[in-house]
Design a protein that fits this description.
mainly alpha, 13 helices
Length: 259
């Protein structure tokens, strides 16, 4: 292969962003549900594992402030945990059958990129937990009430409204930044192993900036679906999380030009 041919290797091309309409997130969900139905057992396995991890993060923490931060933080690291679901969706798209054990190690296709994102997401989660604790300490002496009675206690607290305003503003800004950084970067890293994490992150940011309305709708759908999963005693997460993972693959396919 000549040097010019190598330079045009599709795996090394800069990802090109596409514009999509506002109803695209609903198409992604439908396509994700189709993938779920094609590989229900594998999808349910990931759903059970992801749901168990999310619930353990909350229930093993005694502090209400830390628990609330972990619930929010779980939304930030979810894309990394869903790599196996991306691999299953790619196989469904190609009309192939992927061995379950292959999906478990799909991240190996781009170990450097995934390693970087694992460290980055862990760091961002640690930063958010610290911010969460600080915000709570500013409004509640002795710590915030238990997560299970959070809404009732905040309604009764004299500074509950102010706390919610500050906490939601800080959390929304932080979550939107992480969301924009990871919206399509992790499926991209798996699909194009020669890309580096920095390029994938920039491509994700560009895709979100070029499609603000669909990106915001998709982010809200993720939050709402995940909240429903938690409110159903965690059982809904078993279905919701793999659905979001599969749909995220189709979001990546829709927002970036194929190679």
């Amino acid at each position: 292969m000549s040097e010019d041919q190598g330079a045009e290797d599709p795996a090394a091309l800069w990802p090109q962003v596409r514009r999509v309409d506002a109803v695209a997130p609903w198409r992604w969900l439908r396509a994700g549900w189709s993938d779920f139905r094609q590989r229900p057992l594998a999808s349910l396995f990931y759903g059970i594992v992801l749901a168990a991890m999310g619930l353990l993060l909350v229930r093993q923490v005694g502090s209400g402030a830390l628990a609330l931060g972990l619930v929010t933080g779980f939304l930030l690291v979810g894309p990394f945990l869903a790599t196996g679901l991306y691999a299953i969706s790619r196989a469904c798209e190609r009309g192939e059958r992927i061995a379950f054990r292959q999906s478990l190690v799909a991240w190996r296709s781009n170990l450097g990129g995934y390693g970087f994102y694992a460290a980055l997401l862990a760091l961002l989660l640690a930063v958010w937990l610290r911010v969460s604790v600080v915000v709570v300490a500013l409004f509640f002496e002795g710590g915030m009430p238990h997560l299970g009675t959070l809404l009732r206690d905040l309604w009764q607290a004299p500074n509950g409204g102010a706390f919610l305003s500050v906490y939601l503003a800080a959390g929304a800004g932080f979550a939107l930044f992480v969301y924009a950084l990871t919206a399509v970067s992790l499926p991209l890293l798996m699909d194009r192993p020669r890309l580096d994490a920095l390029t994938a992150g920039i491509a994700s940011l560009r895709a979100v900036v070029a499609n603000p309305v669909p990106a915001l709708i998709w982010a809200l759908l993720i939050v709402v679906l995940t909240a429903i999963g938690f409110l159903s005693a965690g059982l809904g997460l078993i279905l919701v999380l793999p659905l979001i993972g599969h749909a995220s693959w189709h979001a990546y396919r829709d927002l970036l030009e194929p190679v």
